[in-house]
Amino acid sequence: MVLSKRNCAFLLVFVAAVCLELYQATHIVGRCRCPSFSRIYRSNITDFQVYEPSPRCDSTEVILTRIKLDNSTEKLCIHPRGKIAVNLIKCWERINKEESRKMECIERMKRPEEKTSED
């Protein structure tokens, strides 16, 4: 089968468009979950998520869930190089990223007077 110059040009443009579409679908950089970070000190943290770098976002993201004073919950993004995030990430890796063991990491962060004792 012989292609004319016009058909070759059309085919080339079509292949380039498909390649560009596939690239954009798999490499969406700049769509991080955390556009900004909150400062947080010791708080009533109930859960956290650690998102590894991916094609969607090129940095590690740490999102905390905490209980506010009015008993509602709030999700906060914290800087991945901050003290709390670094400790959570280390613990997350130590427990082999097992969802069922997350509370071990949260309990580890609490001050001694905040921990519940079973005496």
UniProtKB/TrEMBL annotation:
Protein known as: Chemokine interleukin-8-like domain-containing protein
Signal peptide feature range: 1-25
Domain Chemokine interleukin-8-like: from-to ranges: 31-92
Keywords noted in UniProt: Cytokine, Signal
Keyword Transmembrane helix: no
Species in which this protein is naturally found: Ilyodon furcidens
